[in-house]
């Protein structure tokens, strides 16, 4: 409980994901590798307690962090990671999630695609960030 899992090693950027976005982040990391971007992928399955040691170590190793969650970017994984890193390892962070909008209903696949939370959307946003 409270320990993240490194699913893929990388040196250029760290992708911290949870829930449904973990598999999509791994797929995006493979696409990024084909473009010469080596992404570390970490599954953070609990936000509280947050595995701060793992996140800080990864941030220091790669110098950039992207969080991915099928949740609002406010008050979730991205916010927790930003709070942690602002004090312990200030590096550039990009939060990928649902922006501050009213939620919609629909098929999960369509909503993930709409909000850029599918593998292609994650790939594009990470590539642009790096």
Automatic annotation (TrEMBL):
Transketolase C-terminal domain residues are: 2-122
User: What PANTHER family does the annotation carry?
Assistant: PYRUVATE DEHYDROGENASE E1 COMPONENT, TRANSKETOLASE-LIKE PYRIMIDINE-BINDING DOMAIN-CONTAINING PROTEIN
Upper lineage is: Eukaryota, Metazoa, Ecdysozoa, Arthropoda, Hexapoda
The entry's protein name is Transketolase C-terminal domain-containing protein
């Amino acid at each position: 409980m409270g320990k993240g899992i490194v699913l893929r090693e990388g040196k250029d950027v760290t992708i911290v994901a949870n829930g449904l976005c973990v598999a999509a982040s791994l797929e995006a990391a493979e696409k990024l590798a084909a473009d010469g971007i080596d992404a570390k992928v970490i599954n953070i399955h609990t936000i509280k307690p947050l595995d701060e040691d793992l996140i800080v170590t990864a941030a220091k190793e790669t110098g950039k962090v992207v969080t991915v969650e099928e949740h609002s970017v406010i008050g979730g994984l991205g916010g927790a990671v930003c709070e942690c890193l602002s004090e312990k390892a200030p590096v550039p962070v990009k939060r990928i999630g649902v922006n501050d909008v009213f939620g919609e209903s629909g098929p999960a696949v369509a909503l993930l695609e709409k909000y850029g939370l599918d593998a292609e959307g994650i790939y594009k946003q990470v590539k642009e960030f790096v």
